[in-house]
């Protein structure tokens, strides 16, 4: 075994994870590559050609890198555990009137656990991925922070990784820019990696049609939920919708309704099968409740508050906010300015500078008025 240790690298076949493996190999680690088969496109019922991290081409691309550099490569079939956990979650969240984030859930509850189990069997001290983020130890805690390339930063997706997992995690791309990675691949002769396009679709919805996926996944769903009311913020009925699971907060296109002015989905009322519509400004909220917390930097904030920069979705720049842990598994968040389209079901991630303090799942959003007295928390309206 190398004096640096043995590391199991998750290799999707793309340029980022491939270069993570290459850099660790060049640094003297004993590298073992592993490509996870999470989904079978034939089972999704979609019509698009199989591409992305689970395709045969991607698996072969990852194996080719390993063969060229002389380290072992394995394929890990986790379709059953992925489907039981991630696909069921994805479906259940839409049926509950929320907007799920399956990629975050997969990263933190499926891929990391699967990698660590196999790392133990292969006597690997570490696991590694191609995420653009950093991990460090501080005062006995392992903390995720933003990657150097803020345009590619993926720290948002890693808030749920446990301390025991972070202890063994390496993120070789954290101090690099995407442009550096492309140059490194080019210099090493991996020109096909540079040419590969990146996929931003949900892996098990290859045609990017989540509504069609839900209909195939739940036979009869369209008939069960069709015919509910489109209503305005004041409750005025303005039409019929196709079913509340087929809409998301902030949606404007594809509503199939004309009111003479632009309208957006501002809320989803599952209990009454209603979809609430409003003006763009009606999407603004300045508070939310977050549950199912994973707090990495400060493990116990119960009864305390903290000023943070909080993100409500992956491509959100983040907004200054006061957070207060009001229960063992609940965080109240009060933004200092309005935030558009806070969607229940999405992940909320709290930052202190570049560090991830922690995160959780958005349970609901609300509007608040400033506290009446110094030291009081703001009051929900």
Q: What's the helical proportion of residues?
A: 25-40%
Quaternary organisation:
single chain
Biggest β-sheet: strands ordered side by side in the sheet:
12-15-14-13-16-17
Give me the secondary-structure category. alpha/beta
- Give the domain tally: 3
CATH architect. name of the largest domain: 3-Layer(aba) Sandwich
Biggest β-sheet description: 6 strands, antiparallel, barrel
Relative strand content = 25-35%
β-strand number: 19
Helix and strand pattern: EHEHHEHHEEEHEHHHHEEEEEEEEEEEE
Spatial separation of the terminal alpha carbons: 62 Å
Round the mean pLDDT to the nearest integer and report it: 91
CATH superfamily of the largest domain: HUPs
State the low-pLDDT regions, or none: none
Structural descriptors:
single chain, 381 residues, Rossmann fold, SH3 type barrels, Elongation Factor Tu (Ef-tu), domain 3, six-stranded antiparallel barrel, five-stranded parallel β-sheet, 19 strands, 26% helix, globular
């Amino acid at each position: 075994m190398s004096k640096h240790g043995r590391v199991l690298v998750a290799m999707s076949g793309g340029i980022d994870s491939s270069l993570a493996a290459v850099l660790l190999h060049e640094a003297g680690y004993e590298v073992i590559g592993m490509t996870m088969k999470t989904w079978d496109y034939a089972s999704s019922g979609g019509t698009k050609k199989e591409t992305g991290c689970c395709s045969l081409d991607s698996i072969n691309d990852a194996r080719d890198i390993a063969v060229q550099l002389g380290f072992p490569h394995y394929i890990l079939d986790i379709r059953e555990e992925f489907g039981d956990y991630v696909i069921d979650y994805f479906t259940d969240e839409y049926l509950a009137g929320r907007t799920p984030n399956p990629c975050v859930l997969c990263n933190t509850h499926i891929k990391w656990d699967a990698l660590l189990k196999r790392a133990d069997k292969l006597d690997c001290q570490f696991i590694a991925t191609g995420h653009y983020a950093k991990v460090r130890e501080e005062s006995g805690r392992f903390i995720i922070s933003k990657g150097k390339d803020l345009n590619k930063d993926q720290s948002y997706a890693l808030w749920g990784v446990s301390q025991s997992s972070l202890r063994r995690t390496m993120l070789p791309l954290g101090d690099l820019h995407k442009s550096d990675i492309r140059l490194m691949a080019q210099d090493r002769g991996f020109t096909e990696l540079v040419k590969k396009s990146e996929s931003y679709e949900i892996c098990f919805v290859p045609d990017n049609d989540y509504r069609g996926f839900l209909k195939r996944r739940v036979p009869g769903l369209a008939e069960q939920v069709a015919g509910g009311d489109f209503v305005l913020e004041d409750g005025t009925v303005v039409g019929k919708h196709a079913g509340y699971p087929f809409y998301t907060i902030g949606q404007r296109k594809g509503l199939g309704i004309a009111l003479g002015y632009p309208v957006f989905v501002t809320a989803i009322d599952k209990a009454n099968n209603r979809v609430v519509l409003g003006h763009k400004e009606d999407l603004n909220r300045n508070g939310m409740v977050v549950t199912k917390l994973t707090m990495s930097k400060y493990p116990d904030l119960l009864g305390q508050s903290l000023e943070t920069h909080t993100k409500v979705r992956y491509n959100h720049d983040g907004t200054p906010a006061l957070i207060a842990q009001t229960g063992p598994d609940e965080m109240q968040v009060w933004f200092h300015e309005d935030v558009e389209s806070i969607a229940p079901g999405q992940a909320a991630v709290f930052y202190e500078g570049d560090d991830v303090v922690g995160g959780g799942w958005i349970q609901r959003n609300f509007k608040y008025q400033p506290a009446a007295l110094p030291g009081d928390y703001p009051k929900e309206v």
